[in-house]
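Input structure tokens:
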């Protein structure tokens, strides 16, 4: 039921391939891939070439989060590079419905990302094209930020919309959360409605460098907390 998706934004980029393989070996489900353009958000990270490089190293889904504007130009490049899921912010697209269609036509699952102050209204008109809804529980741009508590109420609202749509259509949409997720709050976040959890510094900040099993304990602890919900 629950998906844990470590964000490679917090990984050791000098050993990125190993970092990806080690978190999956330790029980992670997806690899979360943060793409920032120093335009839509005030940071610059990685692009399709890095996605292409890590694709042969794991069978796990690569969950590409595009924090870029404009977004349509880069979608086919990430699809070709091996992305399984591509999400974007409605502010990054002139035509949200068209961009969702482009992602799905490229062979990927599609999703919308909502910043802390972005209303959920955008999702109401494109539910048929959504596979994932991602709520930011920090302002995007940098890892290591603290969870914004108001996200819990927003998660509950998004969950109600998703459940109502599932009842009408039979289609399931994932509800993902990204930012400040850690062992001591993941259960509360799950109770609010999330079923996929991006954890960057909480996972990659754990353990001792060089130990391939350093992620076992933190991912196990996250799973244990989720088991209690």
């Amino acid at each position: 039921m629950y998906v844990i998706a470590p964000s490679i934004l917090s990984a050791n980029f000098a050993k990125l391939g190993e970092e990806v393989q080690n978190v999956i070996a330790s029980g992670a489900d997806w690899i979360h891939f943060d793409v920032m353009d120093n335009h839509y958000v005030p940071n610059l990270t990685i692009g399709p070439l890095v996605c292409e490089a890590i694709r042969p190293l794991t069978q796990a889904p690569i969950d590409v989060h595009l924090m870029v504007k404009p977004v349509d130009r880069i979608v086919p490049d990430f699809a070709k590079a091996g992305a399984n899921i591509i999400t974007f912010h409605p502010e990054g697209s002139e035509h949200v419905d068209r961009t969702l269609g482009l992602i799905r036509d490229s062979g990927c699952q599609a999703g919308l990302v909502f910043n802390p102050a972005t209303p959920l209204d955008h999702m109401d008109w494109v539910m048929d094209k959504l596979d994932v809804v991602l709520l930011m529980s920090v302002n995007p741009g940098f890892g290591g930020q603290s969870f914004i508590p108001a996200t819990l109420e927003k998660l509950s609202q998004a969950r109600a919309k998703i459940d109502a749509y599932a009842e009408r259509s039979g289609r399931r949409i994932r509800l993902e959360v990204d930012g400040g997720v850690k062992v001591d709050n993941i259960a509360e976040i799950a109770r609010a409605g999330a079923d996929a959890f991006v954890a960057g510094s909480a996972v990659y900040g754990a353990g001792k460098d060089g130990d391939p099993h350093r992620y076992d304990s933190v991912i196990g602890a996250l799973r244990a907390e989720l088991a209690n919900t």
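Residues 114 and 120 are 7 Å apart (CA to CA). The chain is about 35% helix and 15% strand.
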